[in-house]
Amino acid sequence: MGTQISKQKERRHLVTTEKKALHTLVKTSGDQFPGSDFHPSDRKNWMEGLGPDRLHLYQVVWPGTHDSATNKIGIRFVSRPFAQCQNCSIYRQLVKGTRVLDIRVQQDRRVCHGILSTYSVDVVINDVKKFLSETKSEIIILEIRTEFGKEDPPDFAKYLNDQLGEYLIQQDDAVFHKTIAEILPKRVICVWKPRKTPAPNHGDTLWNGSYLKDNWIDTDLPEKKFENNMDLLGKQPPVKDRRYFYRVENTATPQPDNPIVCVKPVTRRIQAFARLFIAQAFAKGIADRLQIFSTDFIDEDFVDACAGLTHARIEGKAPA
Known about the structure:
The chain has helices at 2-29, 46-50, 90-96, 121-134, 156-164, 180-183, 222-234, 263-271, 274-283, 300-314, and strands at residues 62-65, 100-105, 110-113, 116-120, 140-146, 188-193, 212-214, 245-250, 292-295. It is α/β, with parallel strands linked by helices.
């Protein structure tokens, strides 16, 4: 028992040290970057506000949510804190400015996160369609995957096509260099990642998993996650040369060997350093690699940072 307590004290000390290191980096280097002072007047329509005829798809810095549909997962005050990564609905996230959704499903088409499940994926689709009906020029990346250890929902590709067919942007490498205006009226890039059933083929209306890549670093240590994210981002080609989307997740994950196992207090260790990450990407000369930037419990400031960098790219003030 004494050894375990000692390890936990060391762990807490390490977390505190890493948070202090990131705060020190903010003080010494700052978290300003080209576009950091930009705030969209209407986050619900921030892509339209930037000009669909000026904004190319590869220039977008996409604000995304991690485990997007977990706002009502599990039992409130009991199991929910261990799996909840967002506290508002898919529709509210989109209205706030989110443009990449991360949805995990199981065989019965219910959304899940690990062993816990929540509402049907129909709720997600209906929220997406509601948002699309109220906007004209906002493009969404909807990633849906079968959760690890779960079975694929039957006939799910057909379900997605039936539900979203009129909005789906067909997989085409040429899309990356088109403007938003050239892509419209299609509005949704739907990435379907089954575990066992066949993945979408090249040219399908659904995109396969090779078009949305990331490197998941499973840690509750904020500086470790920050530095690993930066290192892996630097190994990617610039967005202008890529024919896939690359995601960086500004999140920290509870670990089973740590007494703090609720998502919110752990992920908050890194959440405040999103602008610092962008600023450091500029300092290291790799800001032209940043594309999808995701977070837990998304807020307006995170959206503004992504929209601001997107605006700077359009204006020629930031590389892309």
